[in-house]
Amino acid sequence: MSYVRKECSNHWKWKQYLKDYMDRVYYYEGTLNDAIYMVTRCGFKVKESYQVTDYCKFENCEGHKGFMKRLLGHLDYIPQELHDEFMEDAYQIFLSVAPTDDNCKPYWQYPTIYMKLEK
Q1: What is the mean pLDDT of residues 74-86?
Q2: What does the alpha-carbon distance between residue 94 and residue 83 come to, in Å, rounded to a whole number?
Q3: HSE-CB of 109 using CA atoms within 13 angstroms
């Protein structure tokens, strides 16, 4: 999703509307060991930790667009009458990098770190 967010911000058609846009979503790009180090430095004891790859699949493009719409703060800067066009462009950016399942349907794939901590 971070790639889609960045590409939307730099898209030639939308750049003019997004010059004051600041992405408020932080995507942690560190490793599991980095995360463990960070929380232990903050005084937590790690009871359990692991990293997995999570997946998110939708039956159709409208499901993907609905998912993306909730995560794209860009829409606050785009005129309402252009939202559908913007979402179509964002969806096309997603399709350009999305993995596909055995039925050629695109899906979201992202690493997730889980930790059980004690203070």
Answers
A1: 94
A2: 16
A3: 10
